[in-house]
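Deliverable D4.2, example record:
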Amino acid sequence: MTRMTKLAALAPALLLGGCLSFGGEAPDSLLTLTPAATAPAGESAASDRGTALAIVPFEATKALDVTRVPVQVTDTELAYLQDAFWVDRPARLFGQLVAETIRSQNGRVVVDGDDPGLNAADRLHGSLRAFGYDARTREVVVVFDAVRNGAGASAISRRFEARVPVTAPETAFVGPALNQAANQVAGEIADWLN
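Output generated by the structure prediction step:
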């Protein structure tokens, strides 16, 4: 194959490469939530219908249903923290954190995911109301409204809230503070369900 033939064969690929775009620049790093405690690997748990817990995917306000970290600037103004991106939507990350915290603290069988509770009479629903940085108080805020439905027709609700001071409104400080506040709320939910 001559040099000209090789260049001719590569030309369409080179031209196509200039036309393709796979989105904007990727962020330097992504934020996630890490549980303070995890259930040990290899340990199995069994339950009957009455002791298993189904976690219904949590909801979130529109401002939180994105992969950005909200900043409450005033009572009526919201912005997003520069260069701070979650690996997934906060409600999903928080749901996974709550499930793991309950498994590790309570030893219960927890069914979570898109179709939870195949055999669980006890269900946990909820809505994430705040999950970001409050510039007015210089702290991160996590607020979660939980609803627990048992085997009967009764439902119990409770609001959980955690606040953690932040040194500066930067990803390096806000991310760990949100993880700490989320773990605090998850631990309180596990205690409530125990």
